[in-house]
Write a structure and sequence with these properties.
The chain is of the alpha/beta class. The chain contains six helices and eleven strands. It has a seven-stranded mixed sheet. A two-stranded antiparallel ribbon has the order 3-4.
Amino acid sequence: MLSFLQRTSHNLLVSRTLQAVTHSYYSTQMGKRVAVVLAGCGVYDGSEIHEASAVLVHLSRGGASVNMFAPNVEQMHVINHLAGKPSEEKRNVLVESARLARGNIQDLSNLSVKDHDAVIFPGGFGADKPIGLCCISPVLAAKVFPGCEVTVGIENNDKYPDTTGTAAAINQLGCKHMSKSVGESHVDEKNKLVTTCAFMCNAPIHEIYDGIGTMVEGVLKMA
C-alpha cells in the first residue's frame, strides 16, 4: 500500500508540474493575433483539411486570436476527390474555404498586416512578421526569401517519397533545405519562418498533428 501511495503521489506531482509548465507557456502567448490563409477545401485543389484543422486547434490551445482569409477568385481547377480526376465544374476559392472556416472568413484583400502578429499557410507572405508553412508550402518561402532555411521532411527516406526532389528544387533556388522529421519543425530566425513537413511524410495523422503543433508553437513564440 505504501509503495502504491508513493507511486500515486509521484505521478500526481509529475502531472501537476506538466500542467503548470503548459499553462505558463500558453499564458505568455495569449492575445497573439494570427492570420490563417486558406486556398480552398481539399488536398488536391485547395487547403489540406487535416493540416488546416490541426493549425486551428493548436492556435486555439495557444490562446491566439485567429482571423481566416482566402482569395476571392475562381479555382484553377476542381478535382473529384473520390475519383481522383478533374471535374468540369467551377468553384470559388473563398466560398470553398468558408467550409473550413464555418463561414467566418474574409476576402484576402482585406488582410491588414498591421493588425496581425503572424500568418500561417496550410498552403508566403512577407512583412517582417513570423510565417508558418507546412507540407509543400515551404517552397513558396524559398521563392520569396533568398537564402532562407526550410524543411519538407527527410531526404532519401522512403517515408518521405517526395522530399528529395522538392529539397533539390529548394536548394536550386538558392535556399537551404533542412532535414527534419515529421514531428519536428525548423525555425529560420533570420527570416522569421517556421516550417514542418506534415503530409510530405507517410505518417499516422497524430504525428502530422504533433509536427504542426511545433510549427504553431514556434510561430507564436516569435510573434
